[in-house]
Hints:
The protein has helices at about 130-135, 260-265, 315-320; strands at about 5, 15-20, 25-30, 35-40, 45-50, 55-60, 65-70, 75-80, 85-90, 95-100, 105-110, 120-125, 140-145, 150-155, 160-165, 170-175, 180-185, 190-195, 200-205, 210-215, 220-225, 230-235, 245-250, 265-270, 275-280, 290-295, 300-305, 310-315. By secondary structure, the chain is mainly beta. A four-stranded antiparallel beta sheet has the order 1-28-27-26, with no helix packed on it. It has a four-stranded antiparallel beta sheet with strand order 2-3-4-5, with no helix packed on it. The radius of gyration is 18 Å and the shape is globular.
Amino acid sequence: MRPILLQGHERSITQIKYNREGDLVFSCAKDTVVNAWYSLNGERLGTYIGHTGAVWCVDVDWDTKHVLAGSADNSCRVWDCETGKQMALFKTSSAVRTGGFDFSGNIVMFTTDKQMGYSCFVSFFDIRDPAQITNNEPYMKVAVNDSKITSAVWGPLGEFVIAGLETGELLQFSAKSGEIISKAKEHTKQINDIQTSLDLTMFITASKDNTAKLFDSTTLDHLKTFRTERPVNSAAISPNAEHVVLGGGQEAMDVTTTSTRIGKFEARFFHLSFEEEFGRVKGHFGPINSLTYHPDGKSYSSGGEDGYVRIHHFDPQYFEFEMEF
Length: 325
């Protein structure tokens, strides 16, 4: 399984995303640009320029019309995917940590950090309404006072947003009223990443407490736990096999003190039902910060602290593999 190496960032990757068809990969890093790539051969299509700080999150809507990115320069931007023209700029009072388009691609949700005396907010904008964009006024803004949201995704049909906090708690916010529908606390430390399954019925959380956990999207029922020996930075659910992939490794600031072998910088594959590890893929020279499966389940991408995005196309043996039980 030879990876395709995408070298388009000068600093560590923060997030990677496929579009719905899976022909494009979007990557963002701490170096202010968002890149678009062909997922088949790793050719770079172009960059989305505008941010002046580290870009923390990237998302693309269902028909690949718009690309959204949130940055530490206290703004969230939306570009036209094809031309790279900036469509909207949402200014905030603190860094934008995580964001995304809803099911329709019309509503933008993003969260801001708790810093510099400002508390953490979840903002909802309707990009069909030019007044909201020009006045920089979201139609709804929810304050999260006691903690900071570190990762958030839209639930099924755009009815609610699932947010993971620094404390390890999960919250469900209604997209209509903004109130908290339900809570769950299974993790003991910060939730680094949340990703949903293809049909949005389940989601997986990756946490600093060395585990990734599978939950039901609607009820927040805890279903499975996948354990490792290092903090998990990212986890993804396969769209067509009962597999999950976990990526992480030791904290980036401690990396220089260990060799790559001890640092555990592999992508680790677990069986969804049995919670058993069945494979590892080496490659990155540093912790993996973001992982995502291709929508057809035949390849996956990982982005690391080393600034590379690696696209791995699975060997035929992967598809023939059956867990024995």
